[in-house]
TrEMBL record:
Residues 258-445 form the Carbohydrate kinase FGGY C-terminal domain. InterPro entries: ATPase_NBD (IPR043129), Carb_kinase_FGGY (IPR000577), Carb_kinase_FGGY_CS (IPR018483), FGGY_C (IPR018485), FGGY_Carb_Kinase (IPR050406), FGGY_N (IPR018484). Belongs to the FGGY kinase family. The keyword Transferase applies. It comes from Rhizobium hainanense. Keywords: Kinase, Transferase. One of its GO terms (molecular function) is phosphotransferase activity, alcohol group as acceptor. This is L-xylulokinase. One of its GO terms (biological process) is carbohydrate metabolic process. Residues 4-248 form the Carbohydrate kinase FGGY N-terminal domain.
Length: 509
């Protein structure tokens, strides 16, 4: 029976998903990948470990599918965007990869944003530079690690590294190519962009860009032995996970805003012409002549996962021992908290924010009578409020009246209803747990002719989707809470740098 393999590598977990060509997930295998934080604002991973863990996940997914590897007709990778994965002249990893949660280039970006470069970058590339953009990270490496900078031979993204491991072919796709260095009008690489950011030396290190659904290589003999894949299986170029998630969730279209509550707060809508604004990135869509407009910040479900890891560790261990999900264990606490008044608010800025790299996370309004459920509610509301900042920005430039929600929190109906109430519009969730991997699989199937285009989803999306409508009374209440959330953030803006300075100060005496 024909099947497809979608590989989806996030910031903490890499996974392999085998799909039937009708969209049914046959098997999922996951592996955690180590994050290294050697100093403040540095977030890295070992590239060889990433591939090793991904290869293990592929092997397990094939085994769990109960089908021979030869049934897999094509493969596509998707992964977190931005950040940077560098190779030297021998095509070996040039140090650890820098993840999109990294903000070491904050001072460089702050300087750029206060100079004429900001407007020039927006006009040329369709986006303002930000701390995890390849442009900023390369500028940081040039300034701080000149020896490493001089050895750069290939500039890749996460999914491009995995694709290279599968095929030995260097390259990227159109969606990933537009993270820093393409002309927003022509949608092709622009040497002027590299000159603008002061890094023209690496122009030749940019990988060739293909369509996301274009076959670009084949599984090598070595990879076949390592993973159990069939040698020669076609591999397509793949795509940025932001786009893959919207595609897999049925939200890749104009007139719809796709809301991806993952590590990043992703909010995006498609357009047939470039529309540039500092509040969103105007990047390449899958097809030429289309643009994916994304308003984002690294401030979504990573905050919830952090809370679980740091403050619920014993409950996680107990849940796993009992064969239960920690989310199911906490659901009654969260539901109870949503059903009572609370003054607790949380700004989800552990790894970044729409207010710049200097913002930090914080609880406000906590009292001794609040419990863990109240804090979890505040975290989830803060995540939704942050999405609303971005959705409201996009609504100023594009017309849409419905949202598609994907990401781990979309599995909880209470949270989905909260998103509908906060956004003030219908929110639809699709009953698929692996939206990004399925988006990649759609590109894989298109590359070998199974589908006419990535948008030609074989599923009856209407039958596997549920729409939540906002409640007028709750929406009014959330508008008040949201306004206070924004007022506090504005008031904190001059104080966040002073808080950040404390991390560099040492007590005396």
């Amino acid at each position: 029976m024909p099947s497809l393999l979608g590989i989806d590598s996030g910031l903490t977990v890499t996974k392999a998903v085998v799909f039937d060509i009708d969209g049914t997930p046959l098997a999922v295998a996951r592996r955690r990948v180590t994050q290294f934080m050697p100093k403040a604002r540095h977030v890295e991973r070992d590239m060889d470990e990433l591939w090793s863990r991904t290869a293990d996940a592929i092997a397990e997914a094939i085994k769990l599918s109960n089908r021979p590897a030869s049934d897999i007709q094509a493969i596509a990778t998707t992964a977190h965007g931005d950040g940077i994965y560098l190779l030297d002249k021998a095509s070996k990893p040039l140090g650890r990869a820098i993840l999109s949660l990294d903000s070491r280039a904050g001072s460089i970006v702050e300087r750029w944003l206060k100079s004429p470069l900001a407007d020039e970058a927006l006009s040329l590339t369709g986006q303002l530079p930000h701390v995890s953009a390849p442009s900023a990270l390369l500028a940081w490496i040039k300034a701080n690690e000149p020896e490493r900078f001089g050895q750069i031979a290939h500039i890749l993204s996460c999914k491009d590294w995995l694709r290279f491991c599968l095929t030995d072919v260097i390259g990227t796709d159109r969606t990933e190519a537009s993270t820093s260095f393409t002309n927003v009008s022509t949608q092709d690489y622009s040497p002027d962009a590299l000159k603008l950011f002061g890094i023209p030396e690496v122009t030749g290190a940019l990988p060739p860009a293909s369509r996301s659904d274009e076959v670009v290589g084949y599984v090598t003999e070595a990879v076949a032995k390592q993973t159990g894949l069939a040698e020669g299986t076609p591999v397509v170029a793949g795509l940025h996970d932001v786009t893959a998630s919207a595609l897999g969730a049925g939200g890749y279209a104009s007139g719809v805003v796709a809301v991806i509550a993952g590590t990043y707060s992703i909010n995006e809508t498609l357009s047939s012409e470039p529309r540039v604004d500092g509040r969103w990135f105007c990047r390449n869509a899958i097809a030429p002549g289309q643009w994916n407009n994304m308003s984002i910040s690294p401030a979504s479900s990573a905050n919830y996962e952090w809370f679980l890891d740091k403050l619920c560790a014993s409950d996680i261990a107990s849940a796993e021992a009992a064969g239960r999900s920690i989310h199911a264990v906490l659901a009654p606490e969260i539901e109870a908290a949503f059903n009572r008044p609370s003054s607790a608010l949380f700004h989800p800025y552990l790894f970044g924010s729409p207010y710049g790299a200097e913002a930090s996370a914080s609880f406000f309004g906590l009292g001794g009578w609040h419990d863990r459920g109240d804090m979890l509610r505040a975290v989830l509301e803060g995540i939704a409020f942050n999405h609303k900042i971005h959705v409201d920005a996009l609504s100023d430039g594009f017309s849409f009246n419905q949202a598609r929600l994907a990401g781990g929190v979309s599995r909880n109906p209470i949270v989905v209803q909260m998103f509908a109430d906060v956004l003030g519009m219908p929110v639809t969730v699709t009953e698929i747990d692996e939206a990004a991997a399925w988006g990649a699989a759609l590109c894989a199937g298109t590359g070998i002719g199974v589908y006419s285009s990535p948008e030609n989803d074989p599923r009856d999306v209407g039958k596997i989707a549920r729409t939540y409508h906002p409640d007028s009374a709750r929406s009014a209440d959330y508008r008040n809470r949201y306004d206070l959330f924004r007022d506090i953030a504005e008031a904190m803006t001059p104080l966040w740098p002073r808080i950040g300075d404390l991390a560099t100060q040492h007590s005396q005496g």
